Amino acid sequence: MNVYQRKLYALMHQKHKDKGSNSIFRTLLCCKDNLDQLQNWWQQLVEEQEQSQVLPNAIASSSDRVNLGAAFNTKSDTCQVKHPISGQQHQIDSFNQQEIPNLGDIAKERDGKKVFWWLWRFYPEIRAKQSPNALLIPAHKILPDCPIHSYNSTVSALVGALYPEDLQPGKSHEHPYLLLFTFSPVQEFIKASRKFLDFWAGSYLLHYLSVKLCWHIAQLYGPDAVITPSLWSQEIIDALMIQEFDQPEVNYTVFRDSFKQYSLDELDPVSRFDDNKSTSLSTAGFPNIITAVVPGKKAAETLGKELTAKLTEEWKIIAVQVREHIKQKVILWLKESQNQQKREEILQDLSDCDYEACQRDLENLGKPGWWEWNKLWDAQIESSWQPYWTAVPLGNPDQKLVISRNDQETFDSEWKDAQEAIAFSRSGQKIPTEVEEKAYHTLNVGTWWAILQATLGKSIQAVKNTRTWQIPVAPGERSTLSGQFSAVHPNLNYTKYPEGGGLSARSMRLFWRLMAAVYPGGLFNGSEKLNALELTKRMAWQYGGVGESLGIDYKQFIRFPNLSSIAAARFAHDHPEVIRQYWENLNKLIEQELPDFKDNYRSCTGNYPFQVPKTDNRINPNNHQGENLNGVMFSSRWLADDMGLTQSRDVFRRLVETAHKQTGFSNGSPGDWWVIVLADGDGMGKYVSGAKLKEYKHYILTDQLDQTSQQVKGFNELLETKKRMGPATHVGLNRALLDFSNRLVPYITEKRFCGKVVYSGGDDVMAVLPLEDLPEFLRSLRAAWCGAEDPQQEFDPNGGYWYPKQPLEGLPDRAHFTMGEGATMSMGIVIAHKSLPLPTVLDNLWSAEKDRAKKLPGTRQDANPSIPPKDGLCFRVIYGSGNSLEALMKGHLLDYWWKFIQHYQDIDLSPLLYRLAEDLPKHACVTECDRLLSQATEVILNRRDETLSDQVKNDLLDWINQWEHWAFHSRKAAGESALGTQQKDLAMLLKFSAFWVDKMVQRQQWRE
Q1: Torsion 614-617-623-629 (CA) sign
Q2: How far apart are CA 969 and CA 866, in angstroms?
Q3: Helix ranges restricted to H, 759-837
Q4: Taking a C-beta distance cutoff of 8 angstroms, is the pair 699, 87 a contact?
Q5: Which pLDDT tens digit goes with each residue over 749-794?
Q6: What is the pTM of this model?
Q7: How do residues 24-82 score in pLDDT, each as one tens digit?
Q8: Is the dihedral of CA 444, 448, 450, 455 positive or negative?
């Protein structure tokens, strides 16, 4: 009986009570020989605990569920489900879970590890095929806020931690530990970007490295052992499962075949990616913080050290492949005779340098022995990451995990004090509370789960504060991208010349010009000089083995759009004929004045799509070769880079400007302005800690309780006590959040709108999109987060879940989890001109979200209506000159704002909005109920020659009144100078509104 057989038994036992010959375990070859032993082991655990709650079940349930007994009643065709956060209730159809489904070929597998992985991954999918609501069926009738598949996964994880393979003889169980591992830097790594490719790659590689660390834990202890992030139904983990467990060379493809059988489109993850059905495999979503449950202190310490080494190892594997690919490709390119003319062009570009010295450098670069840069690469790559880890026991390791009342009908105070010493509540709340002590007959360490999560967070911060890191010296020229670390060069020998001596600036310049020729297509522009981190980041997907490790053909180009494609995506979708006319105009101009580059132009703009799914489906719905278009054609600078145009750039710029004018793009083009959004759920830590959960009365179904439980002393007081976040509910929440981050966010961004997801994991979202889509995208995202009414009526909200009204592309036809009513999300939004450097945009994005949107105040509870803090929107428009406009808005005002601003389609509101922005602050102030701002607005409206319809006027005044209500009551709560509440802040909102309307009117003119 090995650990995976025990985990299997725990995973499936609750679903299939193993009585009689109908047990699911009798169909599994891997369990047949040990079935009696497994049954006896489980029965022994039952006998050791009261009320048949075996130890892992009890801890997973936490103390509340353990002590709530179910009333006996007949089977029903329906069951009630409670939302785990908001407590919203709705009814779903039930079905017979005792019926054993056909498990196919996996039943014949002898390897318990493979069988466990398969059942953990596919059994919920099997049930979902039988009933759309199967993933919501609760594990507990009385407190139905945790699905049974999440609960059983938690139990199996605890079984692995309690009863590991190496459990010492005579020891009843191991003491579980919680490990938290994280690494940095994050923002600095992403920010070192010139191209959108760098930006995407930075986010993606952080995600990929986190995936590989989670995979390492899962291989050691099972996928259920990773608490955060959830690994279930993550396509990148699914792809790794196929790579790990299938053996196509011997016709063993159980996992690939199962994905095809149970997935919505009958495709496995890689096929779905190859067929452009999903972009999940190239979208970041894993956080840089990982939490796992492991068997004991020693295992936690060992795993922390292993993950530290694994992080560097995985990063170094990618870097070495990139480094060796560059070396081999450069040497080969220099040897090939057909590149002789290009060599001469490179030398001509460096005409201000010593010609013979440059020739010698090129000859030396063709010699393998001249490449002495390995030490420099190693020094930089090994210093890339700063890993940290910490671990805490799940309850005091010197005490039992579960206790019952003693002879005096009280809980042992020494045991309670020992738990408090491990998990101390910052709020000072006593655990257990007096009410819990009265109502419960047993206590287990699962009750302290939420406090232990907070303890992990405090502990890792303490570790960060005490660690020191040594940054390697940077000899010679530094990176032109970030200014950090030395720019790499094949002959920069780190050990011989630690200060960079012996390497001329000429040679450095030549090498990077050569790189642009060796890797055509705009990967390098010939003038930038990168360090090893930046070089690895840019080339990892195709040349560092990242795509290949997932089973993807490494030759596939990166599926992430360039900046111009994002900016022009909506206009191209709505007016493909105008875009094609522009392409033809520019094509003719290039044929006339730069005929040598006409093929390059067609290749760069016709072979590569926008990489924005909704736009590409409109432009080239049948995916015909050569019929794509790419938004890079709107930018002379980026297009010249992609075409490898190092000379005649001034001529090329003139041609692009002429094509704009010929197509009717006056005063700009569709590719000028792009938007990036960073959204973050408010107070997520307070949900896990329980601070933002409601009282038990909102979650417990009292009509399902037996009379004994209801008559326990303190039960009524328990109903008025805030619910705790236990292990299984936490695991269930992490799984459920995947509906938002992996399904709703990509659907809204890439199917509903012409955007692209950069990162979507848990409550964090980063997306890029065209300016036209911004208002309705924000409305849709906010609604999907809290389960509100869908602005586009594609989903029905019910009980904190979104139900598709009809089949939607890429989404399963079932309920999708949202955070429920009352959940809010703050967003930083940057609208940037195409000429701005990416680091500038990203710096503004992070500060807009963290320092502004998250800081917007709320009202007191006595305000009617009361408005919570945070829930902010910070809009920053950054012009090409570097000047900026910032506008702050509370999230609840967005729908009011959109109601009036959407009238721009009928009337140009921008002159009015600019005038209101100028005059309102001079003539009115914020009041409680006098509504001076709206009265002043009416006066200004009446003075205009052009009148507004009553509908437009009333919508505008309603928004201003709602803003004034929030501003006045927020000042009362946070002080007179509260952020975003001054008349000048309203003026900035009006200016931002005018800016947006002005750009929309401009687009209307272009299509005319």
Answers
A1: negative
A2: 9
A3: 774-786
A4: yes
A5: 999 999 999 999 999 999 999 999 999 999 999 999 999 999 999 9
A6: 0.95
A7: 888 899 988 888 898 888 888 887 765 546 789 989 988 777 777 776 665 677 889 99
A8: negative
